[in-house]
Design a protein that fits this description.
The chain is an alpha/beta fold. The chain is built from eleven helices and 21 strands. Helix 5 links the parallel strand 7 and strand 8. Bound molecules: thymidine-5'-diphosphate (TYD) and magnesium ion.
């Protein structure tokens, strides 16, 4: 009788394992995500995957010297800031994004940007010639690719062997979905292969102290590599976002064991690769003149940096029985809450109106300070009355219609003044420690009716 291959089922969303097929994953609650994979027979670990015993012993916390762990600069100010001050030796970084967004471009720009860094660039997707062609487009100064090694390989054991022989300063693997390992039987890109490949690279990074950047494609629903499980394994998750049609790309840190996760960096895709946008506010605030209703500028804080951007709203009579509410880049439930506050606390009848909300530049915001700008944009569209283009907003709106203070109001005011705004609306409960910079007037409002009076008298 033929030897029957034993299989198990994996959730392609969270990596949960189950002996039988289930319609709904009990771990993450997603429907229809279970995929079948053969059971991996445990093979003896190869030389590169074995832990070198004897090297390590438990040490006293106070004896561990961490100042020697100098961070490695990637030659890009924005990227270094996003990582919390450069790459940490021995870390594994996952760079995720939809196909075509610029992951390969960004990772090839790293060795080109700092030629002294000996980089091993492993590509399983493109040929050497394709990489060379891309590098020629990106190279600012000819010959800057000095120490960069290109290696076309998809078998992870070979990659690790080369890495151990060459001892580079940085390893880049493009992409996790194309790599495979002999220790798992399934096809490249399957859940168990991705898990094994990432685990092998993690082991290599921790043992050798060489940082590894791993590129992963994101499935349509925004999950990195389908199995979100990679996010637990790696030290840092950077995610590329942005409209494919537009040229701006937002790189966000979703997880960072060595820095803040609320940072983001903005890049522009040009004919010569990705360019850092050092001052994203300038790209996110309106490019039109005065006189458009339904727009308001919010003073948001992303991580450590204030960021001003435009909130757009469209309020129109509902064509069908039930009103539509749609929000792009903003939490739809939060929008519903703000509309309910407007209805109940300020007497606006929006229940029979369609409300569409959009954040400029494809930004996704979660800072509650954007509430005030959302309300201002909705009201501006509702009255079809344009707000003055020189005012901006920073405040959280509470359920009783009160306007609550937000963190670091002074820095938001400073950034608004720097960009030439004349007025900023903040909560009247904001503790301001410094006098506002010259040229900007700080308007304090305590609740929604007061905001309405101040804006639309
Ligand atoms: P790529 O880095 O290949 O995307 P990914 O690895 O995430 O799939 O980026 C491909 C896109 O970038 C492609 O649509 C062409 C564009 N591009 C430029 O506009 N300028 C450039 O200099 C380069 C190299 C690519
Ligand atoms: Mg690519």
């Amino acid at each position: 009788m033929a030897n029957k291959v034993k299989t198990v089922f994996f959730c392609s969303n969270c990596g949960n394992e189950s002996p039988k097929w289930l319609g709904r994953c009990p771990a993450c609650g997603e429907w229809n995500t279970m995929v079948e994979a053969p059971v991996e027979a445990k093979k003896p670990a190869g030389p590169s995957t074995k832990l070198r015993s004897g090297d390590r012993k438990p040490r006293k916390l106070k004896d561990i010297d961490y100042s020697s762990e100098a961070r490695i600069s990637l030659g890009s100010k924005e990227l270094d800031r996003l990582l919390g001050g450069g790459l940490v030796p021995g870390s594994l970084i996952l760079l995720g994004g939809e196909p075509g967004i610029g992951k390969s471009t960004l990772s090839l720009q790293i060795p080109l940007g700092c030629p002294s860094l000996r980089t091993l660039y492993v590509t399983g997707e493109e040929s050497e010639k394709q990489v060379k062609m891309r590098a020629e487009r990106l190279e600012q100064t000819p010959g800057s690719s000095g120490e960069c090694l290109i290696y076309c390989e998809t078998r992870i054991e070979d990659v690790l062997q080369q890495a151990e022989a060459l001892q580079p300063d940085l390893v880049i693997v493009d992409s996790v979905q194309t790599m495979y390992t002999d220790s798992a039987d399934s096809t490249p890109g399957s859940v168990s292969q991705i898990k094994e490949v990432a685990a092998a690279l993690l082991r290599y990074a921790k043992e050798s102290g060489v940082p590894v950047i791993l590129i992963g494609h994101i499935s349509k629903d925004g999950y990195i590599a389908g199995p979100k499980i990679l996010e637990h394994i790696v030290d840092v998750v950077l995610q590329f976002e942005g409209e494919n049609r537009g040229s701006y790309r937002i790189l966000r840190s979703i997880k960072n064991r060595f820095g803040s996760t609320s940072e983001l960096a903005v890049f522009e895709m040009t004919g010569k690769g990705l360019r850092e946008v050092e001052n994203p506010s300038e790209m996110l605030i309106p490019m039109h003149g005065e006189g458009l209703s339904g727009t308001a500028v919010a003073a948001m804080l992303d991580g450590t940096r204030p960021l001003l951007f435009e909130v757009q709203a469209l309020v129109s009579s509902a064509a069908y029985g039930t009103a539509q509410r749609s929000a792009t880049g903003f939490d739809a439930r939060r929008l519903n809450m703000l509309l309910a506050v407007l209805e109940k606390r300020a007497g606006f009848h929006l229940s029979a109106k369609d409300v569409f909300l959009n954040m400029a530049g494809g930004l996704k915001v979660s800072d509650p300070a954007c509430d005030l700008a959302v309300i201002a944009a909705v009201l501006s569209s509702n009255f079809d009355y344009a707000l003055p283009s020189d005012c901006c907003f920073a405040g959280e709106v509470g359920l009783s219609g009160e306007i609550r203070p937000v963190a670091q109001t002074d820095r938001r005011i400073g950034e608004a003044a720097r960009l030439g705004f004349k007025r900023i609306f903040v909560s009247s409960y904001s503790p301001l420690d410094a006098r506002p910079p010259a040229g900007i007037r700080v308007v304090k409002v305590s609740d929604v009716p007061e905001l309405v009076r101040a804006l639309f008298k």
